[in-house]
Amino acid sequence: MSEEKDQEQPGGTSRGEFLKDDLTVEKTATLEGSPKAIRLMVNGVTYELTEGSEVKPNHTLLHTIRETLHLTGTKISCDYGWCGRCVVLIDGKPALSCLLLTMECVGKNITTIEGLSSGGKLHPVQQAFVDHSALQCGICTPSQILQIKALLEKNPNPTEDQIREAISPTICRCGGPYKLVAEAILDMAKEEGKNG
Q: Is the full-model pTM beyond 0.85?
């Protein structure tokens, strides 16, 4: 970027320009020497990625999950943390993957929507969404499911208000599924209580 352009932009480069700035990566690689491997634990699998090529210092966790690991269940939408559609679980807690740098997540247990099913069988929360037609278009569904999973870990018998609060950070443009999601989870919790 030219000095003239920098002067036109108070506060430096935009977030988008920073994320696309390969010069930052080249400078880092030159200063640090040879690239090193980092280990990222996603869905119980440890991925060994090369810092500088597969994971650059400016890569968000969302970018790494989708573009490097090819796990596309985590959605890109606003890329600014406003919509909540990029939620993953980090050490069991919901987190916006578009706001976290991949390097910040090394050593943490990351769960995406792909990590919930087991042996071809859907997780009970996923199955409840299917059974109650709470899926709608599917853009916000992965985040909502992960947020509900985190809620149920803390409170296996949530109220409707607690369910609505858990999914409230995720904006759903379809508008209809909030009630369906609450009904699905209340029914699932009731069934789990009978069977548990």
A: no
